[in-house]
Amino acid sequence: MGLKSNLHSLKEKYRGTKMAPAFNALHTFLYAPNETTHSGSHIRVVDDLKRTMNTVILALVPCLIFGMFNAGYQHHLALGDIGRADGFFSAIFWSWDNLVIGLWKVLPLVIVSYGVGLAIEFLFAVIKGHEVEEGYLVTGMLVPLIVPIDTPLWMLAVAVTFGVVIGKEVFGGTGMNILNPALTIRAFLFFAYPTWMSGDKVWVHGAVARDKAIAAGQNIDAISGETVLGSLAQNHEPAYSVADMFFGMIPGSVGETSTMLILLGALFLIFTKIGSWRIIVSTVLGALTMGLIFNFVVSQGWITESSKFFGLMSTTWWHHLLIGGFAFGAVYMATDPVTGSQTNIGKWYYGFFIGFISILIRVFNPAYPEGVMLAILLMNVFAPTIDHYVVQGNVKKRMKRLKVKTA
Amino acid sequence: MGLLSKKDTKLITDPLADNNPITIQVLGICSALAITAELKASIVMAISVLFVLGIGNVVISLLRNIIPSKIRIIVQLVVVAALVIIVDQVLKAFAYELSKTLSVFVGLIITNCIIMGRFEAFALGNGPWRSFLDGIGNAAGYGVILVIVGFFRELLGSGTLLGFPVLGNPIPGEQTGLYAFGYENNGFMLLSPMALIVIGIIIWIQRSRNKDLIED
């Protein structure tokens, strides 16, 4: 316990000074503090906000590790160095070469995300004189997982600054934000630097540079890294099997490709009662409903192959769950307890509309066929309204019961 | 300050800071969002509103004792409309490209709440000289915010100021200046939501410097 007592004495030394929140944060980040509250009666549990955050991060680690391997795999595959991996445990996929590329590209994203985000949190804590809030711990892990692998680090830093300050601190910090900060950061990147965030070149490491070299006249033999959504949006048959999509061996943002690992993460979050199963289930239901509606439209012949929406509309309804960032958004973003609905009935509406609108945007916006980000942000805004009507409905029901009794 | 008494000076300086029509009264937001993607358009808009509000306030002030109060809104609208048409025609004659950029927003000066607000709140109850000062002051307060927003949006969104490339040459293959280091323009800055956020940041800074402005 040497470190703990050292941190404790450091904290005592700076107590009452301007830097106190910073040292306090370091201490409580690593250990549960010894002191208890002095007035009134309190129940003290270690399962606090920080523990909640750490559980979510734990659920994200498989996605992060898989993302690192996948980054290298997609890179070598595009260059033609290696063949297609067959099955989830293929040695071609879990190779040292792949991990090296992944570590080299993904770790800087993680470091910049945490470095910039926590620096801003510390800054605001010191200026405002409150304790550093844990809110950024999960956001900092989510951000590197939902950006393309080649995102320039300075762009990430700018976006994180924007997301944390405008998305969270102006509303009063952790727990007061209206929008999910990680998605605010992603949305900022998308609207500010669209060439780095969409299209068929950004998803595989080195593809942008290769494209520039080819444009400059060099003869490089490489396949492009089009995502499944990207090819469907252009009415092309995607070059990946359903198993590839489920295991996640497809191009995409760093950590969002493997539906299987996200499913495991979801089970873990539900089992630990951190994530709301109501939101996850209803989001999936919403997406399936919209997928079935589109399949029905196609089967009725109302839309033909000449339509630019045909590719995505005719996608088998449940495939929508496997492609793009849908699964990741449904499990890790929609379930954010701060920005989502609070009431149990509200959660069903909230989740259903996220799924429904995600697929709607995905199909009708071929230029950027990933709607889950925008759908969650939109429903974040409506979550308090949903809760309001649920609560009012409950009040009305009870008033009626009261009248019946007194009458 | 022999020309202006202390009270008169306040008419001009107040709207510039502590009683700014945009950041404190939150009026005229529409046009502040729509035309501030370029600094040039912001400046022209600011000057147009300066002209309309300065003259309009004087006209309304001169007419204030003969306008029947039941139809005063219509009279005010006629005055603004006449002035706006003058601005519109001048822009079309001497700065056609710019008038195309500003498009309907010159015409929409008529509906700018700041103008009707000043007519109602000030010009109807004060003499022409004071009304003129009040009009100039409020239009300048509006213009200052427009220019600040336009400055940041054009600089960060297009990398230019008044059309001059101040951050270097962004064309791929021959980048100079900041672009040679991998810098890229922020496309979000050119969209209207970002103008709202920039105005929000200005309001934030202004209120944290002067705590009296914070409402509960």
UniProtKB/TrEMBL annotation, chain A:
What the entry lists under Pfam families is as follows: NQR2_RnfD_RnfE (PF03116)
Main subcellular localisation:
membrane
Q: What reaction is this protein's catalytic activity?
A: a ubiquinone + n Na(+)(in) + NADH + H(+) = a ubiquinol + n Na(+)(out) + NAD(+)
Q: Does the keyword Flavoprotein apply?
A: yes
Q: According to the UniProt entry, which residues carry FMN phosphoryl threonine? A: 227
List the cofactors: FMN
- Give the InterPro entries listed for this entry: NqrB, NqrB/RnfD
* Organism domain of life: Bacteria
Give GO MF terms, alphabetically: FMN binding; oxidoreductase activity, acting on NAD(P)H, quinone or similar compound as acceptor
Q: Where are the transmembrane segments?
A: 52-71, 106-125, 145-166, 178-196, 245-270, 277-297, 317-335, 347-365, 371-391
Do you know which HAMAP family this protein is assigned to? NqrB
- How does the annotation summarize its subunit structure? Composed of six subunits; NqrA, NqrB, NqrC, NqrD, NqrE and NqrF.
PANTHER family xref list: ELECTRON TRANSPORT COMPLEX PROTEIN RNFD, NA(+)-TRANSLOCATING NADH-QUINONE REDUCTASE SUBUNIT B
Kindly provide the name given to this protein in its UniProt entry. Na(+)-translocating NADH-quinone reductase subunit B
Organism of this sequence: Gelidibacter salicanalis
Coding gene? nqrB
TrEMBL record, chain B:
The GO terms describing molecular function are: oxidoreductase activity, acting on NAD(P)H, quinone or similar compound as acceptor
Q: Which InterPro entries match?
A: NqrD (IPR011292), NqrDE/RnfAE (IPR003667)
What's any GO biological process attached to this entry? sodium ion transport
Q: NCBIfam families, from UniProt?
A: nqrD, PRK09292.1
Write out the annotated subcellular location: Cell membrane; Endomembrane system
List, alphabetically, the Pfam families matched. Answer: Rnf-Nqr
Instruction: Kindly provide the name given to this protein in its UniProt entry.
Output: Na(+)-translocating NADH-quinone reductase subunit D
Instruction: Tell me which UniProt keywords the record has, alphabetically.
Output: Cell inner membrane, Cell membrane, Ion transport, Membrane, NAD, Sodium, Sodium transport, Translocase, Transmembrane, Transmembrane helix, Transport, Ubiquinone
GO annotations of cellular component type: endomembrane system; plasma membrane
Task: Sum up the protein's function in the record's words.
Answer: NQR complex catalyzes the reduction of ubiquinone-1 to ubiquinol by two successive reactions, coupled with the transport of Na(+) ions from the cytoplasm to the periplasm. NqrA to NqrE are probably involved in the second step, the conversion of ubisemiquinone to ubiquinol.
State the family named in the UniProt similarity comment for this chain: Belongs to the NqrDE/RnfAE family.
Look up and give the membrane topology term. Answer: Multi-pass membrane protein
For the protein in the UniProt heading, the enzyme class is translocase
Per the UniProt record, which residue ranges are transmembrane?
Answer: 43-63, 75-95, 101-119, 131-152, 187-205
Q: Which domain of life is it from?
A: Bacteria
The record's subunit annotation is:
Composed of six subunits; NqrA, NqrB, NqrC, NqrD, NqrE and NqrF.
Q: Which reaction does it catalyse?
A: a ubiquinone + n Na(+)(in) + NADH + H(+) = a ubiquinol + n Na(+)(out) + NAD(+)
What Enzyme Commission number(s) does the record list for this chain?
7.2.1.1
